[in-house]
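To whoever picks this up:

The parser on our side crashed when reading a file containing two proteins. I've narrowed it down to the boundary between the first structure block and the second sequence. Both blocks are reproduced below exactly, byte for byte. First block:
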Amino acid sequence: MSDRISVLFVCLGNICRSPSAEGVFRHLASEQGVQDRLSIDSCGTGNWHIGKAPDERSTAAAARRGIDISDLKARQFCADDLDRFDYVLVMDRSNLADVREVWHQNGGTEPRLFLDFGASQLAEVPDPYYGGQDGFEHVLDLIHEASLGLLEDIRGRLA
């Protein structure tokens, strides 16, 4: 397989879930010593927040875990992402439907639900945007667990 693996996390606005996933995954990849073999990015299916930093609540929740996502900037998903990334991982079924529509028209990497890599009974990472701080912590827990499963899958490809 390739000596470099690329991973894209996708949510709706790219200010809560997907930048959190990017940050957590980068952090865990660094801890496991594989960060130099990975290219990691995030984006949103919507265009409302292009160029903006992650939501302050996401940034604060990540910072409490020693993860800095404050320098990330939102961008919108594009069809070329399906050709550039080995993994296109979406946070919920709505995001999956949006990205699959582009995939059906253009081909490339087939998008998957991110939590497929975790052991949670949940299929989707819930959007914490309209909730309280506990929602952001819950999202980070789900992301952390799925990231460990994703890293295990990637290690098999890098071997």
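<<boundary where parser fails>>
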Amino acid sequence: MAITRDEVANLARLSRMSLSDAELDALAPQLEAILGAVARVSEVAAADIPPTSHAVPLTNVFRADVTRPSLPVADVLAGAPAAEEGRFRVPRILDPDE
């Protein structure tokens, strides 16, 4: 299936892209090559091969959630440039009326 220059121009219009004549001429054979590669992959996929999401099996590598003591608040805030009421003080970035 050959991709024509007019089809590329239509795709560009639908994508709201502005392409020059040279770009339209260059993209047509590139898109045709991409579609050919996808068609070859579709031919290889056999019905007897189960679909997979990963090449190797995955296992959960997360550790169990365990509650542990953290640093004291005073130690954490000691390194902060500004603190207020036991929290980090940061510059306001949003308008309070919004």
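After patching the parser it read the second block fine. The chain has a mean pLDDT of 87. Residues 5-44 form a domain with the Histone, subunit A fold (CATH 1.10.20).
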